[in-house]
Amino acid sequence: MKSILLTSTALVAFAGAASAGGHASPISFTGEATLGYNDEAQGGFYWDSSLDVTGTAGLDNGLTATASFGLDIADGNLGGDVMASDFTVTIAGGGASLTFGDTDPVAEANFADVSGMQAVSFNDQDRHFDVAGFEAMLVGSATVAGFTAQISYGVDNGAGNDLTGEQIDAMQIHVNGALSGFTIDFAYQEEFGPTPTIFGISGSTSLGGADITIAYADRDAGIDGPAITSTGISVSYPVGPVTVGGYYTMNDGGTDEFGVSADYVNGPISVSAAYDDDGTDGGDSFSVEGSYDVGNGLTVLAGLVDSGDAYYVAGELDLGSGATLLVSYADDDNNGANDEIGDPEYNAGATVEVSFSF
Q1: What's the confidence (pLDDT) of residue 11?
Q2: Is residue 236 within 8 Å of 211, Cβ to Cβ?
Q3: Would strands 82-93 and 242-252 be described as parallel, antiparallel, or unpaired?
Q4: What domains can be seen in the chain, in order of their start residue?
Q5: Minimal CA–CA distance to 187: which of 163, 213, 152?
Q6: Torsion region of 306: left, alpha or beta (phi above 0 gives left; psi -120 to 50 gives alpha)
Q7: Which residues contact 305 (CB under 8 A, 6 or more apart)?
Q8: Would you give per-residue pLDDT tens digits along the chain (358 residues)?
Q9: How far is CA 120 from the centre of its chain?
Q10: In terms of DSSP bridges, do strands 228-239 and 242-252 run parallel, antiparallel, or are they unpaired?
Q11: Please, are residues 54 and 36 in contact by the beta-carbon 8 Å criterion?
Q12: What is the pLDDT, as a whole number, of residue 338?
């Protein structure tokens, strides 16, 4: 994630310009704010606020230009200098687009793999920006005959990225489309520096009510370890209010992995249970999480995760107009400072929090 510093004066000037030119180029604002107290957090109280800005303009020849970025208004302080981040600009039209800025490389973001595929380790944003030293991503996309093809490169405006010295490097490709009842997915990453060449292909379909995905990936030796190939299959099937699922992945050069799951949804009750095994000693884990919609905007949640080493209980009350009140208690035996416990990612300890979306 790239960030730049804006002064309060610059922010006010931008807001005025946006208001004055709003009739020509629509600009939308969305944001959120959070205020909470946690008995295990340093200082107890925590708060933050952010604002997302998107501007769109219609160009000649049916083209549309879109620019967006985020503003971190406050994070444990009462404001001041504002950090701008996640800037992107896109030109689109005729089923094609070109995006420049803080966005994901296409193979890592989009490849439809199967859980446990150890060969699938495409470079992500952190590796591109923090390790390779790229300043932005350049992504092109085009849709033809029901297939969408995307290509991405890292871009460095200085002397070149930190791994190879090239100013444009680290190509990834992703292609997705439907063919004869199958959804086909293809992804490729070129080698650059110590990061390996990876390619993968998968196919998904529905058969007799079951959703099935079969995938294959091959990774050369490199920064992520020795050469490895992965072949995986996943199946999910609804049985009344329960959807059962499972996957099995063979990793030639690694360990085989498998897992099973069951998701129950019936009226106000939702329960999810999962078991996974990565093939190593002590590598199995299980979790059970559920929620109950009491009514009047109140939902009660509870979960036992990380094979019983962590748990949480919580209540979330919808206050209307994008506001939510959260009361939770969570505990993690292996990491007392954990702030991502369970699927809701609750803070360890007792928490009372109010959040607003606007």
Answers
A1: 42
A2: yes
A3: unpaired
A4: 1-89 (no CATH), 95-252 (2.40.160.10)
A5: 152
A6: left
A7: 287, 288, 289, 311, 312, 341, 342, 343
A8: 555 454 444 444 444 444 444 445 589 999 999 999 999 887 899 999 999 999 999 988 889 999 999 999 988 888 777 888 899 999 999 999 999 999 999 999 999 999 999 999 999 999 999 999 999 999 999 999 999 999 999 999 888 899 999 999 999 999 999 988 899 999 999 999 999 999 999 999 999 999 999 999 999 999 999 999 999 999 999 999 999 999 999 999 999 999 999 999 999 999 999 999 999 998 999 999 999 999 999 999 999 999 999 999 999 999 999 999 999 999 998 876 777 899 999 999 999 999 999 9
A9: 16
A10: antiparallel
A11: no
A12: 73
Q: Tokens representing 344?
A: 């809701």
Look at residues 288, 256, 291, 264 and name the one whose alpha carbon lies nearest to residue 275: 288
CA-to-CA separations, 10 to 3, 52, 82, 206, in angstroms, rounded: 15, 16, 9, 53
- CA-atom Rg of the chain in angstroms: 23
User: How many other C-beta atoms are found inside a 10 Å radius of the C-beta of residue 119?
Assistant: 29
Instruction: Output the pTM of the full model.
Output: 0.86
Rounded to whole angstroms, how far apart are CA atoms 90 and 139? 9
Q: What angle do CA 289, 278, 200 make, to 5 degrees?
A: 105
The H or E element that residue 214 is part of is strand 210-219
DSSP H helix total and E strand total for the chain = 3, 21
Determine the 3-state secondary structure of 308 from DSSP. helix
Contact (Cβ atoms closer than 8 angstroms) between residue 358 and residue 34: no
CB 122 within 8 A of CB 144: no
- Reduced to 3 states (helix: H, G, I; strand: E, B; else coil), residue 19 is helix
Backbone angles phi, psi at 166, to 5 degrees: -80, 145
Question: How far is it, in rounded angstroms, from Cα 98 to Cα 153?
Answer: 12
Burial of 228 (0-12, 13-18, 19+ CB in 10 A): buried
Amino acid, single-letter form, for residue 109:
A
Structure tokens at 103: 């966005």
